[in-house]
Each structure stands twice: as structure tokens, then as C-alpha cells.
Write a structure and sequence with these properties.
With 132 residues, the chain is an all-beta fold. It contains no helices and eleven strands. The strands form two sheets. Strands 2, 4, 5, 6, 9, 10 and 11 form a seven-stranded mixed sheet that branches. Strands 1-3-8-7 form a four-stranded antiparallel sheet, with no helix packed on it. A hairpin with a 5-residue loop joins β5 and β6. It is globular and about 40 Å long.
């Protein structure tokens, strides 16, 4: 099992920044990749970004490219999401997720990374609210 705990959310004005963190514990050696998703009220959970646990591969949703940066610190078993130039439409609960199986996944096309069901473990979420 892998346990995930997010932190760093809050209330910020449009144009502001936050740094979200996701601390992993348990069988972290089994992780292939980590991802961030978000869910706004009344909407489905959507993919935001993913990062490989062992190499330099990253993946971003088009809506956040150039504004959000995903990174990891293996020594701390922590994944970060730096969110800049925030917009009111970025308001959502942000969830961290861990993926164990890499077989069949493709960093270039995003196959195996973009869907909720691609990840086995989830955190409880952290609220990000952007005021206009």
C-alpha cells in the first residue's frame, strides 16, 4: 500500500501562486509515476500533470502548460505542483495520485496517465480557491 497526503492549498488572488505538496509513504518503491488531478464543484475529476518516479518524464494538461510545474524529491518521497498565474477557473480540490504499473503507458501520447482509473492510490485532496 501507498499512502498519500497533500498539503499547500489555500485561498489566493488571481495571478497568484501556490506550491502543493504530496508526501508518499508505505511501499513507495512500487511507484511508477505520480499525478495531480483536480475536481471543481459539479465537474468531473480531471488530469493536471504527471511525473515519473524514476526519470525525467513529465506530462501536463493543455490548460495548465506554462503555468504549472510538477517535480519530485525522491529523498523526501514527495511530489510538488507549483501553480503560477492562477485563474478563478483553477479553483478546485487538487488530488495527488500514485501509479504502480507502467506497462502500456506512453509519456508521449499520455495513454495510461490521463484517467482516474490509471492510478491505484489517492490522497484526500487539498482545496485551492482563486478569487477574482
Amino acid at each position: 500500500q501507498v499512502q498519500l497526503v497533500e498539503s499547500g492549498g489555500g485561498l489566493v488572488q488571481a495571478g497568484g501562486s501556490l506550491r502543493l505538496s504530496c508526501a508518499a509513504s508505505g511501499r513507495t518503491f512500487s511507484i511508477y509515476a505520480m499525478g495531480w488531478f483536480r475536481q471543481a464543484p459539479g465537474k468531473e475529476r480531471e488530469f493536471v500533470a504527471a511525473v515519473s518516479w524514476t526519470d525525467i518524464n513529465t506530462l501536463y494538461a493543455d490548460s495548465v502548460k506554462g503555468r504549472f510545474t510538477i517535480s519530485r524529491d525522491n529523498a523526501k518521497n514527495t511530489v510538488y505542483l507549483q501553480v503560477n498565474s492562477l485563474k478563478p477557473e483553477d479553483t478546485a480540490i487538487y488530488y495527488c495520485a500514485a501509479k504502480r504499473v507502467g506497462f502500456g503507458s506512453n509519456w508521449y501520447t499520455g495513454s495510461g496517465f490521463l484517467e482516474h482509473g490509471d492510478y491505484e492510490y489517492w490522497g484526500q485532496g487539498t482545496q485551492v480557491t482563486v478569487s477574482s
